[in-house]
Recover the amino acids of this structure.
């Protein structure tokens, strides 16, 4: 939209906020590393929105608050009030906009708190590479308690990023947004935003126990009499969420930063065609290719109206939030990986033994076992075989994971159907990657699937 439309919407938001009896203001930081963090001010009319950002941004100490000064970025959240549809460039009553010149965000016509979280992320996706020369990533991150090794998990909603990074043997740096800097890795946020669907104390104890006073439950149905949440109830939506400060997780790494370069990158995908192996070792070129492709399937519960998995390609695993050309982030990733000799793994948490409807989702226990094998170094020393069309290197054995799970071809009883699905998915990759072909090196183009 043009700047004039932004000015109109900004004035509309401020006029609305000025009519409220109470306006809530929260000042906090984005980015745990003081060298690269920015100061954010949230101005809103709902206590819920202020508490949400209190949980999701980094909370300043009393001393930091006293000397906070002018913010670097301001959010005007007038979400209860609609945008004017007749303003030039407006197509609906909902408007979420960021002005990078003024470093301001204006929200009209939506009360979804996540817009503020992702607004801050979009700004960091711009500032980190442009102002600081650092790489911002849509990823979770954790660090080993014994070896101090750092792992980054890339992945879209529903791939297991939050679940797999919450590991009792490792400290959680963060579950969604990070910066890989020259000195190490730091979290952008001060909280977590976890899915609550079918949440139980047995399956995800860390997240379950983090839901206490001060946390926010969104769209979770609860009993008004006992005030007990029912995490299995999806009558509002499958995308139920909880926002809580990261210190509510017992094994959180506080402050959420480490002065050490990553040892492993895990790219998570949820393949509904059931043809990608549960784990493959990627070359540097393949890592760039899959990072740019950002393949997964939208699973039920991640978006409104998604009732069965839909294949999707979200470049850099963060298409809606990236501000610069995707090649800029991919180049920075490749440089950092080669400089620090980082291993990269593609892990499929989707279907095995058949596509969605005939196969079944890869059991979480197998995926956790594979991730453990990455961290222990067991996988680095494994024997590998080539996985045809996609040219991936897959291990022939991982202790605790059946051989027919490791190689999807063995798990399918109908080999012809398997071949058809492989070709279908390979064709989708090729079509999606045409967007970036002109901007990448020949070796990266050649790292994708090949159809004879």
């Amino acid at each position: 939209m043009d700047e004039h439309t932004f000015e109109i919407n900004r004035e509309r938001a401020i006029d609305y906020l000025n009519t409220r009896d109470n306006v809530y203001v929260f000042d906090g930081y984005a980015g745990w590393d003081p060298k690269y963090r920015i100061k954010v001010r949230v101005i809103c009319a709902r206590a819920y929105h202020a508490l949400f950002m209190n949980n999701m941004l980094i909370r300043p100490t009393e001393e930091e608050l006293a000397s906070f000064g002018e913010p670097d970025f301001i959010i005007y959240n007038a979400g209860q009030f609609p945008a004017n549809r007749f303003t030039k460039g407006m197509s609906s009553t909902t408007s979420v906009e960021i002005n990078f010149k003024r470093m301001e965000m204006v929200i009209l016509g939506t009360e979804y708190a996540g817009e503020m979280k992702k607004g801050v992320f979009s700004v960091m996706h711009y500032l980190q590479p442009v102002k600081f020369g650092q790489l911002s990533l849509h990823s979770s991150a954790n660090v080993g308690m014994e070896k101090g090794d750092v792992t980054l998990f890339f992945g879209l909603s529903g791939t297991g990023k939050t679940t797999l990074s919450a590991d009792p043997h490792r400290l959680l740096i963060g579950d969604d947004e990070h910066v890989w800097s020259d000195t190490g890795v730091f979290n952008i946020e001060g909280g977590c935003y976890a899915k609550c669907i079918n949440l139980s104390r047995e399956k995800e104890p860390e997240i379950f126990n983090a839901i206490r006073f001060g946390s926010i439950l969104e769209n979770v149905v609860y009993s008004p009499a006992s005030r007990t949440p029912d995490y299995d109830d999806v009558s509002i939506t499958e995308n139920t969420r909880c926002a809580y400060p990261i210190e509510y997780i017992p094994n959180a790494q506080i402050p959420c930063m480490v002065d050490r370069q990553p040892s492993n990158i895990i790219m998570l995908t949820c393949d509904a065609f059931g043809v990608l192996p549960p784990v493959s070792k990627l070359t540097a070129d393949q890592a760039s290719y899959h990072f740019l492709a950002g393949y997964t399937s939208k699973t039920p519960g991640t978006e409104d109206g998604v009732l069965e998995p839909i294949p999707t390609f979200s470049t850099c695993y963060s298409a809606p939030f990236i501000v610069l050309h995707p090649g800029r982030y991919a180049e920075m990733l490749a440089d950092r990986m080669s400089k620090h000799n980082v291993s990269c793994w593609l892990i499929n948490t989707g279907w095995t033994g058949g596509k969605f409807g005939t196969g079944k989702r890869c059991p979480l226990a197998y995926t956790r076992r594979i991730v453990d094998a990455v961290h222990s170094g067991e996988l680095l020393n494994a024997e590998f075989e080539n996985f045809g069309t996609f040219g991936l290197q897959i291990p022939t054995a991982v202790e605790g994971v059946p051989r027919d799970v490791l190689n999807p071809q063995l798990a399918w009883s109908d080999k012809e159907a398997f071949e058809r699905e492989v070709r279908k998915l390979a064709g989708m990759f090729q079509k999606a990657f045409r967007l970036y072909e002109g901007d990448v090196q020949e070796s990266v183009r050649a790292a994708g699937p090949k159809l004879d």
DSSP finds 13 helices and 25 strands in the chain. The CA atoms of residues 43 and 359 lie 48 Å apart. The chain has a mean pLDDT of 93. The radius of gyration is 22 Å.
